[in-house]
Amino acid sequence: MTDPAEVLALPKPAWVTEDVAMLYDMARRFMEDEIVPHYDDYEKNEIVDRSAWEKAGAAGLLCASMPEQYGGAGGTYAHESAIIDAVGHAGVDGFGIVLHNAIVAPYILHYGSEEQKKKWLPKLATGELIGAIAMTEPGAGSDLQGVKTRAQKDGNRYRINGSKTFITNGQNANFIVVVTKTDPSQGAKGTSLIVVEADEVEGFQRGRNLDKIGLKANDTSELFFNDVFVPTSNLLGAEEGQGFIQLMQQLPQERLLIGGQAVAMAERALAATLDYVKERKAFGKPILDFQNTQFKLAELKTEITIGRTFYNDCVARHVAGGLDAATASMAKYWLSDLQGKVVDECLQLFGGYGYMNEYPIARMYRDARVQRIYGGTNEIMKLLIARSL
């Protein structure tokens, strides 16, 4: 089988150091040995077994960019990018470790107290705690200022009431960063991030595991907070009202992550299609011998190469601390649009077989669609870019 990692044959960017390359190889082997053999079951059950998370923790694939003193591997986003590529190239896109690693854990690293970091990060690194971030509500998606979930101070505790939906890792997660209003009269300035350890509280309920078009293996849920009490020490940041700023500071990495997932799947789709058109025959010759096939694959390889080059540049900027929100928005929207186009064009080359679930391209077609929605819709990304003009 054509290796997605080699399909473009690009020179490695400077941020792919020896240890980053080694991590990719190790993560890819782990996914193929430990996750791929069970992935059809995870898809059928619509959840990845907790044992897979624990194995990933034991292998050092959780919290790779967290400091060693807190149980992590001491890496950077470059290391997280290697794991994102490994997940995408192995075809286990519903394994929610990239959100756990590169979205949830950084909120604790950047805004948590020393006590919070020591308490939570080591458990996130082992998989004892599985992370989720609860932003979206039934009436608030990309517009985070519209959040209604409320946290009211009650002595040395917060009483949390509200509901969330479309929460990734929602069934497995026992560590949830909740976006909530501590002072609704202040609008965005009244937003705070508060951690809920789901196993330690009463009044927390999980709704159903939502029935999605794709990414079936990833548990995605409604969450309900009914008089959930947590200590005031679970607030992230030195004071209330910092949540919106914290979200704005961290969302560029989330959007870059989605771009990384997009380009990794596009590479896998092209690799799978190359294998198919070399073997499948029509009118007495391989499909690859038709000029239309050659031209189409040439276009896709060119566009994926442009996408990968742009993504690599964004990672380099981000690792150096210079990735701005507008560029991250460009990466998220353009690469996820490209992903959808590539997968659709590749499915067409499979013909009727591409519509059959037994072929991986069919799963990619289903799984790719949400990329243009979550992390902020692509329409919102364009709005953010326009504001920078």
Order of helices and strands: HHHHHEEEEEEEHEEHHHH
* Count of separate DSSP helical elements: 10
- The CATH class name of the largest domain reads Mainly Alpha
**Biggest β-sheet: strands ordered side by side in the sheet:** 2-3-7-6
- Mean pLDDT across every amino acid position: 96
The CATH superfamily of the largest domain bears the name Butyryl-CoA Dehydrogenase, subunit A, domain 3
Radius of gyration: 21 Å
The global form is: globular
How many structural domains are formed by the residues?
Answer: 3
N-C termini distance: 44 Å
Structural class by sheet pairing and helices = alpha+beta
The CATH topology of the largest domain turns out to be Butyryl-CoA Dehydrogenase, subunit A, domain 3
Please tally the β strands and state the result. 9
Binned, the helix content reads 40-55%
Biggest sheet character: 4 strands, antiparallel
Q: Note the beta-strand portion.
A: 5-15%
Which spans of ≥5 residues are poorly predicted at pLDDT below 50?
Answer: none
CATH architecture of the largest domain: Up-down Bundle
